[in-house]
Amino acid sequence: MTDEQASPRVDSEARVHPDAELGCGVTVAMGAIVEAGVVLGQGSEIGPNAILYSGTVVGDEVKVGPGAVLGGTPQDLKFDGGPSGVVVGNRTVVREYVTIHRCVEPGANTIVGSDCLLMATSHVAHECILGDGVILANGVMMAGHATVGHGAFLSGYVVVHQFARIGRLAMVSGASTVRQDIIPFCVADGHPARPKGLNVVGIRRAGMSPEQLRDLKRAYRVLFGHEGTLDRRLTELGEDSREGVPEVSELVEFVRASDRGIARPRRRPRLS
Fold it and tell me: Is 150:170 a contact under the CB 8 Å cutoff?
């Protein structure tokens, strides 16, 4: 990399505070605003008219689209103006007019993982946590404190209730409303969103073996089956996890940790 390539390139009509930290190869386009204390990792690109407020930390090779706003004031009446931030992981793409708000809790960060794609006009509220490889399609709206596991996919205009959780490799169909926790590895849709089976395509794309898929299919049938109480079914699945099935263990732990309760299918799966 030459000295010219290594030096940040800031358009003459952009406003970058002297106390912002710009890594090698960063570009800041016309009309963008980068406030004091912002950190931009090497190779990151900030599009026209984007705004990055104080407390925003962007990883390497992140792309922020036109008009996106990172680190804006949270839309919560409890917010008293204390310092907080937004952290965006490496290689994440934040498309045009996305908004990511900083936290209400002083010293805390709203977190977007690495290798995520946040499509146009999606919104990530205060205290949200997105894992790595998450995709939010156009117009997704996430309320405060919601969490999304690694590799999950939220289709266009999905609405996520505050404090709701969406598990790893889950997929939520377009225009659904998430009011309760969506278990890992499933496809969910509707108003409210409910599981309707496993995300088989996503599971295979993640490199899981046919044996792992088989174990998850059985776990899904047991979890939402007719036999016994939920606690009894979780105990049965817990025995499987102790036999070396980590995905089933992850499923059990997710359900046991639920405060809002898990969304359940409209129809119970057959146990055969």
Answer: no
